[in-house]
């Protein structure tokens, strides 16, 4: 790789949460939204695996650890924390580490909730939290596995970040004059 080449960095994040037991029902928070009448997920936080996967992908892209590194379950301040709060905090940490966010893409696997009608709303809430475009898609697993049996929800995310200082150096550094001979 050329030493002065500035490359964006990609990251990946996966999160899985089980549905809360029937004797300890929880509200469902997913994709930054509250889902009235839907069975909720268990977790130390609100269990929003879409927001968690997005945050994990951001940390992964920067190479600064993962969700547990920054918001471990040993941290009482994150007990019951909303996914939106964790994602906005992750974006703040990413920027403090010298990166800007290109975009985040998340897909979750579940029979329910039916996501399509609220996709725009979810994307708006999560994009605002990240300060960058977050897209969300959904799929079922055709009845297979733990998501097919309705035991929980899984989400996978990718993120793209780029180092800000290096990017700005390139944007502002005087380049070779047009037509100048190559060294
Ligand atoms: N929880 C979900 C799951 C799926 N969708 C939408 O349905 C489409 C078809 O899903 P398949 O798993 O049968 O391929 C999928 O592409 C989503 O648009 C949804 O809205 N909510
Ligand atoms: C988010 C944290 C912290 O509250 O707890 P959970 O809600 O259990 O979520 P998980 O995806 O298991 O990630 C670990 C923790 O960082």
UniProtKB/TrEMBL annotation:
Residues with site note (Transition state stabilizer): 44, 140
UniProt keywords, alphabetically: Isoprene biosynthesis, Lyase, Metal-binding
Needed co-factor(s): a divalent metal cation
Record keyword Lyase present: yes
The reaction(s) this protein catalyses: 4-CDP-2-C-methyl-D-erythritol 2-phosphate = 2-C-methyl-D-erythritol 2,4-cyclic diphosphate + CMP
Pathway: Isoprenoid biosynthesis; isopentenyl diphosphate biosynthesis via DXP pathway; isopentenyl diphosphate from 1-deoxy-D-xylulose 5-phosphate: step 4/6
UniProt: a divalent metal cation binding residues: 15, 17, 52
UniProt-annotated binding residues for 4-CDP-2-C-methyl-D-erythritol 2-phosphate: 15-17, 44-45, 66-68, 139-142, 146, 149
Keyword Ribosomal protein: no
Single Gene Ontology MF annotation: 2-C-methyl-D-erythritol 2,4-cyclodiphosphate synthase activity
Pfam families: YgbB
GO biological process, one term: isopentenyl diphosphate biosynthetic process, methylerythritol 4-phosphate pathway
Enzyme Commission code(s) on record: 4.6.1.12
Residues covered by the 2-C-methyl-D-erythritol 2,4-cyclodiphosphate synthase domain: 9-161
Similarity section: Belongs to the IspF family.
Subunit structure, interactors included: Homotrimer.
UniProt-listed HAMAP family: IspF
Function: Involved in the biosynthesis of isopentenyl diphosphate (IPP) and dimethylallyl diphosphate (DMAPP), two major building blocks of isoprenoid compounds. Catalyzes the conversion of 4-diphosphocytidyl-2-C-methyl-D-erythritol 2-phosphate (CDP-ME2P) to 2-C-methyl-D-erythritol 2,4-cyclodiphosphate (ME-CPP) with a corresponding release of cytidine 5-monophosphate (CMP).
Protein name per Swiss-Prot or TrEMBL: 2-C-methyl-D-erythritol 2,4-cyclodiphosphate synthase
């Amino acid at each position: 790789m050329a030493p002065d080449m500035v490359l964006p960095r990609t990251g990946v994040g996966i999160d899985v949460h089980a549905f809360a037991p029937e004797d300890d029902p929880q509200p469902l928070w997913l994709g930054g939204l509250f889902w009235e009448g839907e069975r909720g997920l268990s977790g130390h936080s609100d269990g929003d695996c879409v927001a968690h996967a997005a945050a994990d992908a951001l940390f992964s892209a920067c190479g600064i650890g993962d969700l547990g590194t920054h918001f471990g379950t040993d941290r009482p301040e994150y007990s019951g924390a909303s996914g939106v709060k964790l994602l906005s905090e992750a974006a703040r940490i990413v920027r403090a580490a010298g990166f800007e966010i290109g975009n985040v893409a998340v897909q979750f696997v579940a029979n329910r909730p039916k996501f399509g009608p609220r996709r725009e709303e979810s994307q708006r809430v999560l994009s605002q939290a990240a300060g960058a475009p977050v897209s969300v898609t959904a799929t079922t697993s055709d009845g297979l596995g733990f998501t097919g049996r309705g035991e929980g929800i899984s989400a996978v995310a990718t993120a793209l970040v780029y180092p800000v200082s290096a990017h700005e150096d390139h944007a502002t550094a005087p380049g070779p004059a047009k037509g100048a001979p190559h060294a």
